[in-house]
Amino acid sequence: MKNRLKVLRAERDWSQAELAGRLDVSRQAVNAIETGKHDPSLPLAFRIARLFEMRIEDIFDDGEQQ
Amino acid sequence: MSKPLGPGEARTRQRQRRQLVYVAIAALLGGGIGFVTGFFDKGDGSLFTGDWEALSLDPAIAVILALALVAGFAVLPLYGFTQIDEMKRENNLIASTGGCIAVITGFPVWAVLYAGGFVPAPHAFGVFAIAFVAMAISYPIARFVR
């Protein structure tokens, strides 16, 4: 699944470790999500959306048209 | 002068420290079990060849080792599961599934090959080793390949 996590993180000048700590996950998990190797669970997707004060669908794109 | 740590980076370092402590405890426990088993073993048997009748330990040492093995193979990993994030938990579950499938497949395959005269008879340590090796192979596949 595509996502804008890397861009959003860069806009805040956060390292992967900084974002990982704020989300309470490992740095490897942040890297895996950014590179599309891991799709976050719904609770983690909500945590990410809350952290960036955005909607989940504004961060993640499953490729399906609405 | 190094950049000050943000709250997230500080928490990440704390997580990494906890992980190191966990690995150190697991290594100490494993090393302790290996040392005690080797030091107090009185028999001529071998786990690797299924020569069970010749294995011998003092009953008290055997009980201590059994408790340490439960701690090492059940309690510590289950505790570890509560400390890792969802991605690592998923990778661990994939590795466990790999071990389970390997045993479910490996034992009957071993049994029929034994019946056909190709290999020695199946034994418990062999089945344990199938699970262990399959998990050890499955984890890096889950972590790095998929």
TrEMBL record, chain A:
Identify the Gene3D superfamilies for this entry.
lambda repressor-like DNA-binding domains
Task: Tell me which PROSITE patterns the record gives.
Answer: HTH_CROC1 (PS50943)
Pfam families to which the protein is assigned, alphabetical: HTH_3
Q: Which domain of life is it from?
A: Bacteria
Give GO MF terms, alphabetically.
Answer: DNA binding
Report if keyword DNA-binding is assigned. yes
Write the record's keywords in alphabetical order, separated by commas.
Answer: DNA-binding
Metal-binding keyword on record: no
User: Which stretches make up the HTH cro/C1-type domain?
Assistant: 5-59
Protein name per the record: Cro/Cl family transcriptional regulator
This protein's species is Erythrobacter litoralis
Query: Which lineage is the organism of this entry classified under, starting from the top rank?
Result: Bacteria, Pseudomonadati, Pseudomonadota, Alphaproteobacteria, Sphingomonadales
